[in-house]
Amino acid sequence: MIPLSYYIGLSAILFTIGVVGVLTLRNAIVIFMSIELMLNSVNLSLIAFSAYSGNPAGQILVFFVIAVAAAESAVGLAIIIALFRNRLTVNIDEVNVLKW
Amino acid sequence: MNFELIVFLVLAAAAIASAILMITRKNPVTSALYLVFNFFIIAVLYLFLRAQFIAIIQITVYAGAIMVLFLFVIMLLNLGDDKLLKWKLNSGKSIAALLAIALLVEILYFVMNFTSTSELSPKADSMGTVEAIGKVLYSSYLFPFEITSILLLAAIVGAIFLAKKKFE
Protein backbone atom coordinates (compact mmCIF):
# COMPACT_ATOMS: atom_id res chain seq x y z
CA MET A 1 0.00 0.00 0.00
CA ILE A 2 1.00 3.62 -0.49
CA PRO A 3 1.79 5.66 2.64
CA LEU A 4 -0.28 8.81 3.15
CA SER A 5 2.88 10.92 3.33
CA TYR A 6 3.70 10.10 -0.34
CA TYR A 7 0.47 11.76 -1.46
CA ILE A 8 1.12 14.79 0.74
CA GLY A 9 4.71 14.99 -0.55
CA LEU A 10 3.53 14.87 -4.18
CA SER A 11 0.93 17.51 -3.36
CA ALA A 12 3.63 19.74 -1.79
CA ILE A 13 5.90 19.38 -4.84
CA LEU A 14 3.09 20.24 -7.28
CA PHE A 15 2.05 23.19 -5.09
CA THR A 16 5.61 24.53 -5.09
CA ILE A 17 5.85 24.22 -8.87
CA GLY A 18 2.64 26.26 -9.03
CA VAL A 19 4.08 28.88 -6.63
CA VAL A 20 7.28 29.14 -8.72
CA GLY A 21 5.13 29.55 -11.83
CA VAL A 22 3.02 32.33 -10.30
CA LEU A 23 6.07 34.17 -8.97
CA THR A 24 8.36 33.94 -12.00
CA LEU A 25 6.25 33.76 -15.16
CA ARG A 26 5.24 36.79 -17.21
CA ASN A 27 2.39 35.45 -19.32
CA ALA A 28 -0.87 36.13 -17.45
CA ILE A 29 -2.58 33.04 -18.91
CA VAL A 30 0.18 30.64 -17.84
CA ILE A 31 0.14 32.28 -14.37
CA PHE A 32 -3.55 31.39 -14.29
CA MET A 33 -2.75 27.81 -15.20
CA SER A 34 -0.23 27.71 -12.34
CA ILE A 35 -3.02 28.76 -9.95
CA GLU A 36 -5.13 25.87 -11.28
CA LEU A 37 -2.19 23.56 -10.62
CA MET A 38 -1.97 24.80 -7.01
CA LEU A 39 -5.71 24.26 -6.50
CA ASN A 40 -5.31 20.75 -7.88
CA SER A 41 -2.45 19.86 -5.59
CA VAL A 42 -4.51 20.95 -2.57
CA ASN A 43 -7.42 18.85 -3.88
CA LEU A 44 -5.10 15.84 -4.02
CA SER A 45 -4.07 16.25 -0.39
CA LEU A 46 -7.72 16.74 0.67
CA ILE A 47 -8.77 13.52 -1.12
CA ALA A 48 -5.82 11.65 0.41
CA PHE A 49 -6.67 12.79 3.95
CA SER A 50 -10.34 11.98 3.29
CA ALA A 51 -9.59 8.44 2.08
CA TYR A 52 -7.14 7.62 4.87
CA SER A 53 -9.34 8.99 7.66
CA GLY A 54 -12.68 7.74 6.30
CA ASN A 55 -14.35 11.15 6.44
CA PRO A 56 -16.36 12.17 3.33
CA ALA A 57 -16.09 15.92 4.17
CA GLY A 58 -12.79 16.12 2.25
CA GLN A 59 -14.41 14.95 -0.97
CA ILE A 60 -17.29 17.42 -0.53
CA LEU A 61 -14.77 20.22 -0.03
CA VAL A 62 -12.98 19.18 -3.24
CA PHE A 63 -16.33 19.35 -5.05
CA PHE A 64 -16.76 22.96 -3.87
CA VAL A 65 -13.14 23.81 -4.73
CA ILE A 66 -13.76 22.60 -8.30
CA ALA A 67 -16.93 24.72 -8.51
CA VAL A 68 -15.07 27.79 -7.22
CA ALA A 69 -12.16 27.10 -9.62
CA ALA A 70 -14.59 27.03 -12.54
CA ALA A 71 -16.07 30.40 -11.50
CA GLU A 72 -12.62 31.86 -10.83
CA SER A 73 -11.22 30.82 -14.21
CA ALA A 74 -14.25 32.23 -16.06
CA VAL A 75 -13.93 35.63 -14.36
CA GLY A 76 -10.11 35.64 -14.58
CA LEU A 77 -10.09 34.87 -18.30
CA ALA A 78 -12.67 37.62 -18.84
CA ILE A 79 -10.31 40.02 -17.02
CA ILE A 80 -7.42 38.86 -19.26
CA ILE A 81 -9.56 39.47 -22.37
CA ALA A 82 -10.43 42.99 -21.11
CA LEU A 83 -6.73 43.60 -20.35
CA PHE A 84 -5.69 42.45 -23.81
CA ARG A 85 -8.34 44.64 -25.42
CA ASN A 86 -7.05 47.74 -23.61
CA ARG A 87 -3.27 47.14 -23.56
CA LEU A 88 -2.73 44.62 -26.41
CA THR A 89 -0.52 42.51 -24.15
CA VAL A 90 -0.80 39.76 -21.54
CA ASN A 91 2.71 40.41 -20.22
CA ILE A 92 2.20 41.31 -16.57
CA ASP A 93 5.53 43.18 -16.39
CA GLU A 94 4.02 45.80 -18.70
CA VAL A 95 0.84 46.10 -16.65
CA ASN A 96 2.42 48.11 -13.85
CA VAL A 97 0.11 51.07 -13.18
CA LEU A 98 -0.66 49.78 -9.68
CA LYS A 99 2.94 48.81 -8.99
CA TRP A 100 4.77 50.32 -6.07
CA MET B 1 7.92 -2.93 -3.40
CA ASN B 2 4.48 -3.91 -4.50
CA PHE B 3 2.85 -3.20 -7.85
CA GLU B 4 0.59 -0.40 -6.63
CA LEU B 5 3.50 1.57 -5.18
CA ILE B 6 5.48 1.30 -8.45
CA VAL B 7 2.49 2.55 -10.45
CA PHE B 8 2.06 5.41 -7.96
CA LEU B 9 5.72 6.43 -8.26
CA VAL B 10 5.58 6.38 -12.08
CA LEU B 11 2.40 8.51 -12.04
CA ALA B 12 3.91 10.91 -9.49
CA ALA B 13 7.04 11.34 -11.62
CA ALA B 14 4.87 11.98 -14.70
CA ALA B 15 2.76 14.53 -12.78
CA ILE B 16 5.84 16.42 -11.57
CA ALA B 17 7.46 16.30 -15.03
CA SER B 18 4.32 17.60 -16.76
CA ALA B 19 3.97 20.39 -14.18
CA ILE B 20 7.59 21.49 -14.70
CA LEU B 21 7.17 21.32 -18.49
CA MET B 22 3.99 23.40 -18.16
CA ILE B 23 5.72 26.34 -16.48
CA THR B 24 8.82 26.22 -18.71
CA ARG B 25 7.21 26.10 -22.18
CA LYS B 26 7.17 29.28 -24.27
CA ASN B 27 3.99 28.52 -26.17
CA PRO B 28 0.86 28.79 -23.94
CA VAL B 29 -0.97 26.14 -26.00
CA THR B 30 1.76 23.60 -25.14
CA SER B 31 1.54 24.65 -21.49
CA ALA B 32 -2.22 24.10 -21.51
CA LEU B 33 -1.86 20.63 -23.02
CA TYR B 34 0.74 19.63 -20.39
CA LEU B 35 -1.65 20.86 -17.70
CA VAL B 36 -4.45 18.70 -19.18
CA PHE B 37 -2.04 15.72 -19.01
CA ASN B 38 -1.31 16.59 -15.37
CA PHE B 39 -5.06 16.72 -14.58
CA PHE B 40 -5.55 13.26 -16.08
CA ILE B 41 -2.76 11.83 -13.90
CA ILE B 42 -4.29 13.42 -10.80
CA ALA B 43 -7.65 11.88 -11.79
CA VAL B 44 -5.98 8.44 -11.84
CA LEU B 45 -4.53 9.15 -8.37
CA TYR B 46 -8.08 9.95 -7.19
CA LEU B 47 -9.12 6.49 -8.42
CA PHE B 48 -6.26 5.03 -6.33
CA LEU B 49 -7.85 6.78 -3.35
CA ARG B 50 -11.30 5.31 -4.23
CA ALA B 51 -12.78 8.73 -5.08
CA GLN B 52 -14.55 7.74 -8.31
CA PHE B 53 -16.98 10.66 -8.45
CA ILE B 54 -14.27 13.28 -7.92
CA ALA B 55 -12.07 11.55 -10.54
CA ILE B 56 -14.86 11.84 -13.12
CA ILE B 57 -15.64 15.49 -12.40
CA GLN B 58 -11.90 16.21 -12.42
CA ILE B 59 -11.83 14.99 -16.05
CA THR B 60 -15.13 16.53 -17.18
CA VAL B 61 -14.93 19.88 -15.36
CA TYR B 62 -11.19 20.54 -15.12
CA ALA B 63 -9.70 18.83 -18.17
CA GLY B 64 -12.90 19.25 -20.18
CA ALA B 65 -14.52 22.58 -19.39
CA ILE B 66 -11.89 24.78 -17.70
CA MET B 67 -8.96 23.86 -19.95
CA VAL B 68 -11.09 24.22 -23.09
CA LEU B 69 -11.94 27.72 -21.84
CA PHE B 70 -8.21 28.41 -21.43
CA LEU B 71 -7.38 27.11 -24.92
CA PHE B 72 -10.28 29.11 -26.33
CA VAL B 73 -8.93 32.36 -24.78
CA ILE B 74 -5.35 31.60 -25.94
CA MET B 75 -6.56 31.09 -29.50
CA LEU B 76 -8.91 34.09 -29.31
CA LEU B 77 -6.04 36.37 -28.28
CA ASN B 78 -3.75 34.66 -30.83
CA LEU B 79 -0.86 34.20 -28.38
CA GLY B 80 1.89 32.28 -30.10
CA ASP B 81 5.59 32.11 -29.32
CA ASP B 82 6.18 35.57 -27.98
CA LYS B 83 9.80 36.54 -27.33
CA LEU B 84 8.71 39.08 -24.70
CA LEU B 85 6.90 36.42 -22.69
CA LYS B 86 9.90 34.11 -22.47
CA TRP B 87 10.93 32.81 -19.07
CA LYS B 88 13.41 35.36 -17.80
CA LEU B 89 14.73 35.48 -14.25
CA ASN B 90 15.75 38.75 -12.69
CA SER B 91 17.02 39.16 -9.11
CA GLY B 92 13.59 39.66 -7.55
CA LYS B 93 12.15 36.61 -9.29
CA SER B 94 15.15 34.45 -8.33
CA ILE B 95 14.57 35.35 -4.69
CA ALA B 96 10.88 34.49 -5.11
CA ALA B 97 11.75 31.09 -6.60
CA LEU B 98 14.22 30.39 -3.78
CA LEU B 99 11.55 31.26 -1.19
CA ALA B 100 9.16 28.87 -2.93
CA ILE B 101 11.75 26.10 -2.70
CA ALA B 102 12.25 26.92 1.00
CA LEU B 103 8.47 26.45 1.37
CA LEU B 104 8.77 23.02 -0.26
CA VAL B 105 11.61 21.98 2.06
CA GLU B 106 9.57 23.14 5.05
CA ILE B 107 6.45 21.18 4.01
CA LEU B 108 8.45 18.06 3.17
CA TYR B 109 10.23 18.25 6.54
CA PHE B 110 6.89 18.16 8.37
CA VAL B 111 5.48 15.47 6.07
CA MET B 112 8.47 13.18 6.64
CA ASN B 113 8.13 13.63 10.40
CA PHE B 114 4.48 12.82 10.90
CA THR B 115 3.47 9.26 11.63
CA SER B 116 1.64 8.21 8.53
CA THR B 117 -0.57 5.22 7.88
CA SER B 118 -0.31 3.26 4.67
CA GLU B 119 -3.72 1.59 4.91
CA LEU B 120 -6.85 3.18 3.45
CA SER B 121 -9.72 3.56 5.90
CA PRO B 122 -12.14 0.58 5.65
CA LYS B 123 -14.91 3.11 4.92
CA ALA B 124 -12.98 4.49 1.90
CA ASP B 125 -14.32 1.87 -0.55
CA SER B 126 -17.95 2.92 -0.14
CA MET B 127 -17.27 6.64 0.40
CA GLY B 128 -16.37 7.98 -3.04
CA THR B 129 -19.28 6.62 -5.06
CA VAL B 130 -21.83 8.96 -6.65
CA GLU B 131 -24.50 7.61 -4.29
CA ALA B 132 -22.49 8.21 -1.11
CA ILE B 133 -21.32 11.69 -2.18
CA GLY B 134 -24.87 12.60 -3.24
CA LYS B 135 -26.34 11.52 0.10
CA VAL B 136 -23.87 13.64 2.07
CA LEU B 137 -23.99 16.59 -0.36
CA TYR B 138 -27.80 16.89 -0.37
CA SER B 139 -28.23 16.45 3.38
CA SER B 140 -25.42 17.86 5.55
CA TYR B 141 -23.98 20.19 2.89
CA LEU B 142 -27.19 21.33 1.19
CA PHE B 143 -26.80 25.00 2.14
CA PRO B 144 -23.23 25.41 0.79
CA PHE B 145 -24.38 23.60 -2.35
CA GLU B 146 -27.14 26.17 -2.90
CA ILE B 147 -24.69 29.01 -2.22
CA THR B 148 -22.47 27.56 -4.96
CA SER B 149 -25.27 28.13 -7.48
CA ILE B 150 -25.35 31.84 -6.51
CA LEU B 151 -21.55 31.98 -6.86
CA LEU B 152 -21.73 30.47 -10.36
CA LEU B 153 -24.48 32.92 -11.36
CA ALA B 154 -22.34 35.84 -10.12
CA ALA B 155 -19.37 34.44 -12.07
CA ILE B 156 -21.42 34.17 -15.28
CA VAL B 157 -22.72 37.76 -14.97
CA GLY B 158 -19.24 39.04 -14.01
CA ALA B 159 -17.52 37.25 -16.89
CA ILE B 160 -20.00 38.61 -19.44
CA PHE B 161 -19.74 42.14 -18.02
CA LEU B 162 -15.92 42.12 -17.97
CA ALA B 163 -15.51 40.69 -21.46
CA LYS B 164 -18.03 43.12 -22.99
CA LYS B 165 -16.63 45.55 -25.56
CA LYS B 166 -17.67 48.79 -23.89
CA PHE B 167 -18.73 49.66 -20.37
CA GLU B 168 -21.96 51.62 -20.60
Round the mean pLDDT of chain B to the nearest integer and report it.
87
* CATH class division of the domain at 3-88 in chain B: Mainly Alpha
Question: How many angstroms separate the termini of chain B?
Answer: 65 Å
Query: Total domains of chain A, how many?
Result: 1
Choose one word for the global shape of chain A. Answer: elongated
Sum up the overall morphology of chain B in one term: globular
The largest chain-to-chain contact, stated as pair and per-chain residue counts, equals: A-B, 70 and 89 residues
Order of helices and strands of chain A: HHH
The CATH topology name of the domain at 3-88 in chain B reads: Four Helix Bundle (Hemerythrin (Met), subunit A)
Quote the beta fraction of chain A.
under 5%
Write up this protein:
- The complex is a heterodimer of chains A (100) and B (168).
- With 100 residues, chain A is an all-alpha fold.
- Chain A has a single domain, classed as Helix Hairpins, CATH 1.10.287.3510.
- Helix content of chain A is 78%, strand content 0%.
- Chain A has 3 helices and no strands.
- The longest helix of chain A is centred in the last third of the chain and has 31 residues.
- Chain A is elongated.
- In chain B, helix 1 packs antiparallel against helix 2 and helix 2 packs antiparallel against helix 3.
- Chain B has a domain of 86 residues: NADH-ubiquinone/plastoquinone oxidoreductase chain 6, subunit NuoJ (Four Helix Bundle (Hemerythrin (Met), subunit A)).
- Chain B is globular.
- At the A-B interface, helix 1, helix 2 and helix 3 of A face helix 1, helix 2, helix 3, helix 4 and helix 6 of B.
